[in-house]
Amino acid sequence: MTIAENLFENLRLELRRGCLTLAVLAQLRQEHYGYTLRKALAERGLEIDESTLYPLLRRLEAQGLLTSEWREEEKRNKRFYRLSSDGEQMFGQLLDEWRAINKSIDNIL
Amino acid sequence: MDLLDRYLEAVKKHLPWERQDDIIAELKANLEAQLEDKEAALGRPLTAAEAEEWLKQFGHPIQAAARYQPQRYLIGPALFPFYWYVMKLAFIWATLIYLVVTVVLLATRTPIQIDVLAILLRLPGGLLTTAAWVTLIFAVIEIAATSCPGKFPALASPSADWSPGALPPLGQQFAGGKKPRSFAQAVAEVIFGFLFLVWWLLVPQHPYLLMGPGAYYLGVSPFQLVSVWLPFYWWVVALSALQLGWRCLDLIRGSWQRVRTAEKTVMSAAGLIPLALVLSVRDHAWITLKRPALDQARYGVAVDAINKGIFAVLVFICAIVVLQLVWEIGRIGVKAYRERTATMH
């Protein structure tokens, strides 16, 4: 990887980091377990590595933005996540922020 | 799948013990679901090579487990600029203290021996110890600040209480942190430089100007100065005249406020020449006996003691001049680098 490619990759990851959290919170307005959440995001054009997504779910839950429960589905125990009431509030605020940034960037461009 | 279980077991070892089972159960459910989808799409189980390739995407077990841990820093980004600032100061002070202590120890040791290589090789060890202590102290501060952020707000963010009003006035920051030289100061420097030169030029005819009553004692004493002091004397004359000329030129040109980096560097470098000249004297004998055959038994020990004292003083002055030179060259280098980066941007 050249220096320019490496720099681009770092900046891209930095740019994506906050967006991923927003996308996960948005998608978890409906209940999902890890794998179906990843598939649902991928179907909408946002690919996330498992190694990024699953720890992210844990962190968001620890921050009180998600709730989870273990439930059996298709003969297998799975942990299902959804947005908590605090998470809904936070999601609303973040969405407003994201839209404002988007609008500003559009204006600048 | 044996390989998946082995991978999960390896990840488990590096997870926090109180959440190991929970995380592994969830990870297993997710990965098995993914595996089922993959195998359904292929219409067959994965081969060993495909399974290895698939699991490799999740990263090394240590990395995979680390993502479930909170981000950890030895010294976090809020504290790091202060850590780095203190580290630089500590390095400068450690080097200065080491050099001064080394010079003093060398000067007081008998017989005097200077092993420059050994002195230089000991310095990195001292700096490493300094760095270790500074890092340890800041790591403890970081742990205290992150464990109980409410209890140590000043530690968690040392810059939180700063006030722009507490910054030093601009005049004190002029020209690399120094107040610019006033006209009166520049004139005084020229006058005192001139007076020094006149005084120094009169010393050979009137030695009491330098040594006071000692001049008379030197005349009647059994001791005498060796010939190396004469070129040393003229070197001092030349350097003083050069410095005086430089300062007069500044006054004439109206540039007395400028930073004297070049002048200081040249003077420090040139100042090493007479010192080296004097230090090169054979057997470090700057004072000898006028009649060695007669007085050696009586005054030999005294002459040795005086010469050792002179050697210690010369080495000490030499160390200071070298440090000054290194400091000035460093400043020139940093300034040049900054100017170059400024033009590049």
Q: What does the secondary structure layout of this molecule look like, with pairings?
A:
The complex is a heterodimer of chains A (about 110) and B (about 350).
Chain A: H1 3-27, E1 32-33, H2 34-43, H3 50-62, E2 66-73, E3 76-83, H4 85-108
Helix pairs in contact in A: 1-4
Chain B: H1 2-12, H2 20-42, H3 48-56, H4 61-66, H5 80-108, H6 116-147, H7 153-156, H8 170-177, H9 183-202, H10 208-211, H11 214-220, E1 223-225, H12 229-253, H13 261-279, E2 287-289, H14 292-344
Antiparallel strand pairs in B: 1-2
Helix pairs in contact in B: 1-2, 5-6, 5-14, 9-12, 12-13, 13-14
Describe it for me?
The complex is a heterodimer of chains A (109) and B (345). Chain A is of the alpha+beta class and 109 residues long. Chain A has 4 helices and 3 strands, in the order αβααββα. Chain A has helices at 3-27, 34-43, 50-62, 85-108, and strands spanning 32-33, 66-73, 76-83. Chain A has a 3-stranded antiparallel β-sheet. In chain A, strand 2 (66-73) and strand 3 (76-83) form a beta hairpin. In chain A, helix 1 packs across helix 4 (85-108). Chain A is globular, with a radius of gyration of 16 Å. Chain B is mostly helical and 345 residues long. Chain B has 3 domains: 1-70, no CATH class; 71-164 and 175-256, no CATH class; 259-345. Chain B is 72% helix and 2% strand. Chain B has helices at residues 2-12, 20-42, 48-56, 61-66, 80-108, 116-147, 153-156, 170-177, 183-202, 208-211, 214-220, 229-253, 261-279, 292-344; strands spanning 223-225, 287-289. The model of chain B has no long low-confidence stretch (mean pLDDT 81). The chains are: A alpha+beta (109), B mainly alpha (345).
